[in-house]
Amino acid sequence: MTDRQIPSWSELKPLLRPKPIELDPTRRRLDDALTITDLRRTARRRTPRSVFDYTDGAAEAEISLRRARSLFRNIEFRPSILHDVSAVDTTTRFLGRPSAQPFGFAPTGFTRMMHHEGERAVVRVAERRDIPYALSTMGTTSIEDVAAAAPDARKWFQLYVWKDRSAGEDLMARAKAAGYEALMLTVDVPVAGARLRDTRNGFAIPPALTVKTVLDAATHPAWWLNLLTTEPLRFASLSTWDGTVAELLDKLFDPTMTIADLEWLRASWDGPLIIKGIQTVDDARRVTDAGADAIVLSNHGGRQLDRAPVPARLLPDVVEAVGDRTEVWVDTGILSGADVVAALALGARATLVGRAYLYGLMAGGERGVDRAAEILSREVRRTMALLGVASVDQLGPQHVRLP
């Protein structure tokens, strides 16, 4: 028989430690988010469906995106024990220069649609966190305004080649004058992918006030208030557009571009050149031979060709083929610091994340982006320590096994 007694106040007092009440609702939401998946759930609640689906969705049946995420989920880590990991160094190098983390912020279009703070919020976080940020041609804040928002950030300009080549030359000249370090040429969009969520939602820039969107506004009043009371939502690199995103891409982008056109690009840009959208070993060789300083294995986050190759699976073969001549980076499907570490172990020099920080932006503006970077950074450091790795350059194929 168990003897029982009534606990005294002195015994109860140490157990009664109520969590401090956080009065700031944004801070409360972000503190409760422990993973990027948590931020995604919050983003879904706080933004109109068409906006969330534009960020979250991919092309056609979304097979490419699911396969990329599935590969990361199914990678098996192989930890090594009894190593000194009391100080874990997450520093890596992009284009030969150090970055505090082995991930940078990928270019994303229409960023002020996700949250009115938009690209300015993202580049300010990149500056504080000492990681690179790439501004998209389809951005909603100008090249100059992004540069002014974070003068000390490492900024790259992402270029799509337009049918009007003079417009591209003007954008490159503006980026150079504003101090952008590198040019990132995206090569996997000769035509727009079939993003069916956007089509079904009637997605357009700026959002059209249909019966459907008015009803949606009733459940997302803060988002609509910010949209209607801040500077108009528009593309910063072109005048106006009132059609769908796919129609815009097909109208502007040049499907005739070939590898020979890189000579035209080099005539206008003499800084580092990153080629994004590589999906085969042969193409990695071709652009490396043409002088790319870095390549990004990417299927555009699954937003272009469905059933495309999974970028992370290509890593070992591409690194073996060209890794001694150019930097090999990877994106698509990365939603955790463990994914970042797995990519590095497979041979990537560095990684880019897009949706991960956009979920944070939708969840809480600049503070949400910072929370996303904090989550990823913490997960990278913890995963490395548990693998028995004290620095990024110690990671290798011995630490992972592909499914």
From TrEMBL:
Cofactor requirements of the protein: FMN
Keywords (A to Z) from UniProt: Flavoprotein, FMN, Oxidoreductase
PROSITE patterns according to UniProt: FMN_HYDROXY_ACID_DH_1, FMN_HYDROXY_ACID_DH_2
Chain sites annotated for binding FMN: 107-109, 136, 158, 186, 276, 298, 354-355
EC primary class: oxidoreductase
Residue sites binding glyoxylate per the record: 54, 160, 195, 300, 303
Family matches, as InterPro entries: Aldolase_TIM, Alpha-hydoxy_acid_DH_FMN, FMN-dep_DH, FMN_HAD, FMN_hydac_DH_AS
Domain FMN hydroxy acid dehydrogenase: 28-403
UniProt entry tagged with the keyword Zinc-finger: no
GO molecular function, one term: FMN binding
Catalytic site positions: 300
Transmembrane segments: none
Enzyme Commission number, as recorded: 1.1.2.3
Annotated Gene3D superfamilies: Aldolase class I
Similarity comment: Belongs to the FMN-dependent alpha-hydroxy acid dehydrogenase family.
Name of the protein: L-lactate dehydrogenase (Cytochrome)
Gene source species: Cellulomonas fimi (strain ATCC 484 / DSM 20113 / JCM 1341 / CCUG 24087 / LMG 16345 / NBRC 15513 / NCIMB 8980 / NCTC 7547 / NRS-133)
